[in-house]
């Protein structure tokens, strides 16, 4: 593969403290495969709709029953929407909860690195659980989990399966799962 490698930082907008990841992808990855990589890198489960917002354009999977102007991301390459480096755009996952992510293409590197799939190189904090109610629901979730006397504590502990550490991020596990995404 003769394309460049982009170093990208993705940050979950409005998370405090910040939830973020840094990863490497080939510049000619399709937006569809980038979405698949982001799902793994962030820890989402790909249950919901998504789109990339670049300027006035939205890229994702168009709904044949609802013409909102979404451009099919399967045929669009990352390098085609990144006019310069650094470059920034948005990724939204789960239109109900509105998990907004800031994607910053930080730098371009030559392709001497022999990558067969995207690689996560750094990150901080756990991804919020699916369907927790967006960033504000997540903040409430953390508040409840921090107070065993809270009236919702037992229900949330049961819902999350007992354990949740908001500070935990396992880069090695993410990279193992990323091997499923082939170029």
Automatic annotation (TrEMBL):
It comes from the Bacteria. Gene3D superfamilies: MM3350-like. Pfam families: PRiA4_ORF3. Residues 5-171 form the Plasmid pRiA4b Orf3-like domain. Transmembrane segments: none annotated. This is Plasmid pRiA4b Orf3-like domain-containing protein. The lineage of its organism: Bacteria, Candidatus Yanofskyibacteriota.
